[in-house]
Amino acid sequence: MTSDTTGLPVLVIGAGPIGLAAAAHLLERGLEPLVLEAGPSAATAVRGWSHVRLFSPWAEVVDPAAEKLLTPTGWTRPDGAAYPTGGDWVARYLQPLADALGRHVRYDARVTGVARAGRDRIVDADREQQPFTVHVTRADGTEERLLARAVVDASGTWSTPNPLGADGLPALGERAAADRISYRVPDLRDPAVRARHAGKRTAVVGTGASAFTALAALADLAEQEPGTHAVWVLRRGLTGSTYGGGTADQLPARGALGLAAKAAVEHGHATALTGFRTAAVEPSADGRLTLVAEDGTRTEGLDEVVVLTGLRPDLSFLTELRLGLDDRLQAPVALAPLIDPNQHSCGTVYPHGAAELSHPEQDAYLVGMKSYGRAPTFLALTGYEQARSVAAALAGDHEAAARVELTLPETGVCGGAGLYDAPAEEQNDGCCGAPAAPQLITLGTGPSGPSCSPTGGC
């Protein structure tokens, strides 16, 4: 760093699991973090899926640097074998961690722009010697301008779900039917949400963990409420890998979720509608909805539509930074080949760090879910490793930044993404030809497992 940035903090965007872990690692390195959270409390996004249970037990969802920070506060580590819900994760770990970080975390602070001081993205002169300027809008509408020595964007992708349209654009009529379309796993404990689906026909669009979770929940509701049925809308056909790794998954809870979705179909609580790429949503004469596919196929008699087709990064406030992003995934160019679902979908990726996350804009990093752009299967332990490596790089310890310090489990299945319309046997052949792997150093005595939110598709 140069004298122009001396004394300035490393600004972290987002007080979620990875943003808070980044702050803990930065403090451990003797750097000053400042975490800006758009919501009124820590982990706003996780609170949005508080009813969903993680795939991994407590033993695998606590960052080591964060635990060191929490221990002196009297924090008690939860039972390592228990599986928390998103709400548990917030109440028993994430909010206490934010509290332990104290003055390093600010709430109701939405980042609306990041740039170099006095330099738009065109200007080269002395660019790397300038601090970052960060524009922030408070909950009351007031604005402020902060300076930072580096920026670590851990804001995630929760606020920007993919639309229903198969071409990446909202389907015709999607906005007009907004009161009947949701983009989150329904919380059927909520009486109002339960009433929307009980005894109704709900289309569930998507093939990831979120869709599995929704199908399993609606199947349980169907056991209690006659007439409840799910129409599972898939853009491709059913193959051996559609339901994930099953019993071969190194995370049993993740494998069981896919099997629960399969059971929902086999027991008649859900009907699979394959090869259906939505182009339009139309109101029916009876007040219900009809989905229309690109080929003209129609599925009628729908009361609700739950769109779980993945997430995408919000890059709107980073337009003045020189980011090196893959033109398909919107992920860092060095990371993209490792996670490209057009090439492989084995449910894991070689751990990576600052080198793969770097951009032409020095000391600017996207970490966590946002670093994956539009790719699925992000794992929380991947994010913790990213945070550790980036903190080391910003502290000047490039040897530690380059070191790999964990291994990750696999789903037990390859394929499923692969070629757009290839037969199943082609999709399952040689799908995991990622670039050469770095040497992996396993922590602990057993396999590490990731935490998985419904946003991650893992």
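the 2nd protein, sequnce then structure:
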Amino acid sequence: MDRLKPNSVGLLGVVFMAVATAAPITAMTGNVPVAVAFGNGIGAPAGYIFATVVLTVFSIGFVAMARRITSAGAFYGFISHGLGRVMGLASGLLAVLAYIVFEASIVGIFAYFADTTINAQLGLDLPWQLYAAIMLAVTAALSYFDIHLAAKVLGVFLVAEIAVLALMAFGVLFQGGGPDGIPLGPLEPTAAFGGTAAGFGLFMAFWSWVGFESTAMYGEESRNPKKIIPIATLVAVVGIGLFYVFVSWMAIAGNGLAGSVALATKSPLDLFFVPTEQTVGHWAVVAFQWLMITGSFACGMAFHQCAARYLYALGREGLIWRPLGRTHPKHGSPFVASFAQTGIAVVIVALFSLSGQDPYLGLYTLMALLGTMAILIVQALCSFAVVGYFWRRGGNKLTTLVAPLLGGAGMITVVWLLFDNADAAAGPAAESTLFAAIPWTVAGVFVAGVLGALYLRKVKPETYDRLGRIVLEDTEERAERIAAT
């Protein structure tokens, strides 16, 4: 059986991949201004505190499963063991759908950032499709090699984007804030539920974390995965959360309470650019704009890695297309699945281009909504899978029963927030036919997974028995070898 290359990435590498997938600079510049202008207003930082708490509780159950099961298919393997193979395959296909469209979505915002920045700073007016093609080609090339190379590239971009956000935040802090000093109001718990549309603001906060769970996908390629993956997950969730709270709080402090709402409504990116200009200097604003490009590239490449590993996990179990389960003889990368993912992303981007859609308002927004809806449902099911798995095997009630149930309830709340605020999140794209088809697409893929698993159970029982099971046996053997050494 083809295997991913073991011991390719350590704790830092896994954390980098997960945080790059969450994309701090894209999350902050893309989500905070919208939340301030149209969501929970100056309570956006409190919204990030609320999201940090809910996702930390969810992660407690998630890492409990990661200590038992190491799978390139992550949710697919977890849910297969906790809720059964039928729900596992249905959830696996939903996760595949999510990560496949996430890459295409990020290609859209990357092209938008590149087009606006290069046009403004270099005076070159090039078609956005060119930038999209460059990103797709470079991502495919880097993903062909050892994941260690991809982790290094993501690490460089990630450190740079965190640095520029931190410069702005600490600049405001050391300056003593803006017109209102450093107000504590944005951190009050009740502020998370204020503003004109608190539900929308909270959804934008949760959206900023999508991708943190990708830590589990790199278990087969990490060193001592049953130790590294749980640590990396909690570090990513809590670390990202604290950083988001601090940066969003300082952005509001730098512009003042009333000024932040007015600025975010009129010129969203200036919510970050203005305090950066005032406290650090114009050079930092220029760096900020370029790092928005590299940050979105890092995010897209991380999502590409996630999608490729899900396709690989399904392929080696004889599902979809068996060659997807092949790995490169030298690099150990899932190169067939990776190229397949590139092909799918190219088709999605091409269809949006041919239909005259905008890369930001169309491609980025609609594909992000589709993927987010799918992955949130999978996360909710994963919480209940933890309960199902440990209910039969025993375990700490706090970490394997109480925390997963609370996490599952939190995830269901976020799914409801998405449904309830989908029109606002989509903006102008809410008028499109594709937007109306999003919930039906998610439901259709899930039902197809259920029917496919039932068909396999009746017609191909050997294939059905392998669903979500191959990786568990492999990693147990590796864990024994690691312990022996």
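The radius of gyration is 22 Å. DSSP finds 18 helices and no strands in the chain.
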